[in-house]
Amino acid sequence: MSETAPQPKSASRRAISRPIFERTFNINSEQAIRVIRDSYHRLMVSLYAIDVILRIIGREETVDEIESIVSQMIAECAEQLQQEKMRLEKLKADNGISETPTYTHPREFVAKIASPQIAQFVELIRLLDQLMIVMDTLWLCQIISNKHCIAARLEWQQRLQRLANKIVTMERHAHQAAYEQGHGEEVRLARQESGLNVEPQPSLDTDAPKE
Q1: Where is the composition biased (Basic and acidic residues) (predicted)?
Q2: Does the residue 15 lie in any domain?
Q3: With CB atoms 3.0 to 4.6 Å apart as the test, which of 52, 135, 177, 178 could cross-link to 183 if both were Cys?
């Protein structure tokens, strides 16, 4: 019976020490909580991959182009959120409303900021939460109808989720292009060395059912 030669063990690779901010926020609205629960973690991985991994394998032009597009997409969404928030705040002021509701199940969200674009999207989530609070105030005070409020909540939630999906798709296409050009092993090692496979989950309870 022939013996199989022992396979050499792959050398263990040291994880790269990378800068990160850890910021803790209270998130009140169900819509912002759903964006975090359903989209944040995968988006965080994709944004980090765009910002760091493709640079490691030397694809500077691709990274710069994608980062520019991503930043512009996030900035445009932020501007839309700000404009709607200002419009609703004026409606609130015009009706003499000074109250702000509390929420029955707010969540603590610990954001791991590993790239500038992640910071941008986290601020987008916070802006969505602020918009929902103003909208809920107007609904509770009977300034906007239940039907309108339900539709608007869903629309803004899905707007952020669609944006997250677009960014994830862009990152996947960029990685696929790197594989097709013979950089597959470099991408795999870069992800491993950067700790991307063990990226921490956002600290947010996920017991609420999806809708």
Answers
A1: 182-191
A2: no
A3: 178
Burial class, 123, CB count within 10 angstroms (exposed 0-12 / middle 13-18 / buried 19+):
middle
Residues 194/15, Cβ–Cβ less than 8 Å: yes
Please, what is the average pLDDT of the chain? 82
- What are the pLDDT digits (tens) for 116-135? 888 999 999 999 999 999 99
User: If pLDDT is split at 50, 70 and 90, which confidence band does 82 have?
Assistant: very high
**With the C-alpha atoms ordered 65, 76, 203, 155, is the resulting torsion angle positive or negative?**
negative
DSSP calls for 165-200: HHHHHHHHHHHHHHIIIIIHHHHHHHHHHTTGGGPP
120, 74 contact by CB (below 8 A): yes
| Element housing 55 (H / E) | helix 54-56
User: Does residue 143 fall inside a structural domain?
Assistant: yes
pLDDT band at residue 91, thresholds of 50, 70 and 90?
A: very high
Q: How many domains does the chain have?
A: 1
Instruction: Look at residue 86 and tell me if it is in a domain.
Output: yes
